[in-house]
Structure formats: C-alpha cells, structure tokens
Amino acid sequence: MRIVDIITKKVNGKALSPAEINFFIQGYTEGTIPDYQASALLMAIFFQDMNEDERAHLTMAMVNSGETIDLSAIEGIKVDKHSTGGVGDTTTLVLAPLVAALDIPVAKMSGRGLGHTGGTLDKLEAATGFHLEISKEEFIHLVNQNKVAVIGQSGNLTPADKKLYALRDVTGTVNSIPLIASSIMSKKIAAGSDAIVLDVKTGAGAFMKSLEDSIELAEAMVKIGHNVGRHTMAVISDMSQPLGYAIGNALEMKEAIDTLKGEGPEDLMELSLVLGSQMVMLAKKATSLEEARKKLIEVIKNGKALEKFKLFLASQGGDPSIVDNTDNLPQAKYKIEVPALKSGFVRKIVADEIGVAAMLLGAGRATKDDKVDLAVGLMLRKKVGDEVKQGESLVTIYANREDVSSVIQKIQDNYEIGEFVAAPKLIYQTIT
Ligand code: URA
Ligand code: CA
C-alpha cells in the first residue's frame, strides 16, 4: 500500500477502506508517513468529507494507536460526560458528585489543558492538596468504594490524535466535522466508559458557532458511538454567553458547591439536571427522564450530593472544608467592579472574548507551561436579558494585581447594551 494512492483516492472523493485508514494512522503514528503527506490527506478529507463507515474506522484506528483504559473491574455501567469547550463551564464539577450520589460510577480522566480557565483538574486543585497522581489500582478501588474518582491523563492514550491534532492546528484543517468528531470520540472511547453523554456547545463561546454546525457535529459523534458499540447521546446547549456567573478556577469551584446545595445559577443547575438525567438513564438507574431528574433533585435536597463531593475531594487529598466554608478557597487580593457605560438591557455577552478577559488575569493558560492563578477570575453580575443602569456593575473582577484597565476595557467592549432581548434558549436539541 502507498500513502500517495490513498491521498489521490480521497482527493477524487472516494471512500477509504478500513485497511487504508489503518495504514495511514499506523504509519503516521510510527513516523513512516511524513507530515507533508499526512497534511495532504487531512486537506483532502477536509474538502471531500468522510462517510459514516470511514468516520467509525478512523476513530477506532486512533483508539488502537495507543493504550486504552479497562474499567471492567468497576461494578455497574460507567457513564462519561464530555462538553465541547465553552467558557466558565462548571458542569463537570457539579455532575461528577451529583451522579455518583445515585451510585452511578464516575471514572474520570482529566488533564490541565489550555484555555480561558484551567481544566477540571485546576478547578479541583482549588481544594488545597487535591491530586490525581494515583495508581490505576487505587483509581479503580476509589470508584468502587466512593463511586467517583479522577485520574491523570495517561501519557499514551490516542497518540495518533495528539499528533494529528497538532498537525491540523498548523494546516488549517481543525474545522472539519469528520476530523473533530473522530478526534473527540477516540479519546472518549479509549477512556473506557460504557456510555457517553455529549454536551455540544453552540454559539460565540463554542467550537461550533452556528446551530447547524453544532447539530451536524453532534450527529456525527453520536453515530460514531453507535457504530463502535457505545451508548451515546448528545445535548446541544447554548454557549453564546458564558454558563453560570463564575469564570475562574476557585470561583467556579464555589459555584459548583452552591449548585450542589441547590443555590447555584439557574442555567448551570438546569443544564446539570438535563445532562445528569441522561447519564442516569444510560446507567439504567431510572426508567424515564422525569424519574431521573427527580432522583437528582432529591440528592441535592437531602445533602447526599454535597457529602459525596466532600468524600471525593478528601479521598484524593483535597481539603473538604471548602464545601462548608468557601472562604477556605484561594482568595484574590482585589475585587474591582466593571461599570456599564450606558443604561438599557444586556443584548449580548461575547462569551469567548469574556473568556479571554479571564485569561488576561491569569485564570487560564496560553501555553502548557503557564502557571494558573486559582484565585482570579470574573463573576458576571448581568446576563443577557437583564436590565442595567449606567454605572451599575456588569462584572466583578477578582485580581491579584491592581491595574486591570485592559480587562475592564475588554469586558465593556464585549457587553452589548441596548433594546430588550429575551435570554437565549439554554437547550436546543437532544440527539440520540
Ligand atoms: N477537540 C478535540 O479534542 N479535537 C478536535 O478536533 C477539536 C476539538
Ligand atoms: Ca460558570
């Protein structure tokens, strides 16, 4: 087999066979296929697309390029959740203890990642001492015992995806549905859960800005899941404005704790219940979404979800006192209000630019060696549809430096104030 023939075939719009896809993935992972030929094939896929079978084969070829996690020693149906990007998305912190409180095993892998705020790990580290350097045996033991644990990303999970994603990043081939869908699904499948709930974001702060593209991506991922034998479903949710109020690691930790107490922002609570209900259904712990939702609300009301969160943090070295006393979280030195420049209604909050504002404070990483400041970030005081008077605060900045004029400017530039508009829809569609 020659890679040039495979490139030519795809350039001409033909479907690749499983053997051809395997040849490409294996050769590229091992280094026998050079970057320039891999780039050419990616560009051909970008323009010619892949059919359903090719997408499933590409996903499995990437899964098989490295290690996979075997969770079979954990009792019960393991359900994973994945959100595609977003700004201030605190759902993982809420959902892990919430679902585990219903005895559904949550076996999560997490990394630091890049972005506006840290990854789930950074947020968890706001509970001083929390760590995920645990052995696989300890991980499995903890999930069996507590129903929830998080382990660091294995170094050799889907190496083909790591290499290809880096290449796509510099060859203009990131934004391709078959390539994004297979990239995300390969990592989820290698991580070993039996069932997957996908939270596909749509809007300015999302990977996919238009609803049509978001639906297409969600459908592509759900089909891949089904074709490789994993129960998979997707929810399309709004990310035109940030979710909840908090953007920043310790701030999001506090927001997650509030939500587990039933006192969180309405949109974060609702999305957590929607995604959580789907997880409960896939875990076969309820026979209808209504029943699943009721059970989730019950463990919030009776405090079991909160107790689970404490147990989870303490089991991995984290300070559980933050749950009862959020003042024990890392605190920023300065709190600065961002005044509205005029009166009216908030029409738009450009989510990705607000995320950049949080990053300017040090809440996130631009490169993987950057250090994150856990205490800093933003608390939104106004969201789309809210009335605001000139001079009233739009956002509170939590900073560890005094001069935040560039951050204030960025926030004011990205809050559109004018005639009334209703708050955007939170959940657009469910795809099964
Ligand atoms: N996230 C991924 O993991 N892969 C993509 O291709 C895009 C977003
Ligand atoms: Ca949030």
From TrEMBL:
GO molecular function: pyrimidine-nucleoside phosphorylase activity
Annotated SUPFAM superfamilies: Nucleoside phosphorylase/phosphoribosyltransferase catalytic domain, Nucleoside phosphorylase/phosphoribosyltransferase N-terminal domain, Pyrimidine nucleoside phosphorylase C-terminal domain
Reactions accelerated catalytically: thymidine + phosphate = 2-deoxy-alpha-D-ribose 1-phosphate + thymine
Broad EC category: transferase
PROSITE patterns tied to this protein: THYMID_PHOSPHORYLASE (PS00647)
Domain of life: Bacteria
Signal sequence annotation: none
InterPro entries: Glycosyl_Trfase_fam3 (IPR000312), Glycosyl_Trfase_fam3_N_dom (IPR017459), Glycosyl_Trfase_fam3_N_dom_sf (IPR036320), Nuc_phospho_transferase (IPR035902), PYNP-like_C_sf (IPR036566), PYNP_C (IPR013102), Pyrmidine_PPas_bac/euk (IPR018090), Pyrmidine_PPase_CS (IPR017872)
Transmembrane segments: none
Keywords of the record: Glycosyltransferase, Transferase
Any Pfam family: PYNP_C
Domain called Pyrimidine nucleoside phosphorylase C-terminal: residue spans: 345-418
Enzyme Commission number(s) of this protein: 2.4.2.4
The family this protein is said to belong to: Belongs to the thymidine/pyrimidine-nucleoside phosphorylase family.
PANTHER family in alphabetical order: THYMIDINE PHOSPHORYLASE
Subunit field text: Homodimer.
Protein name: thymidine phosphorylase
Upper taxonomic lineage: Bacteria, Pseudomonadati, Pseudomonadota, Gammaproteobacteria, Enterobacterales
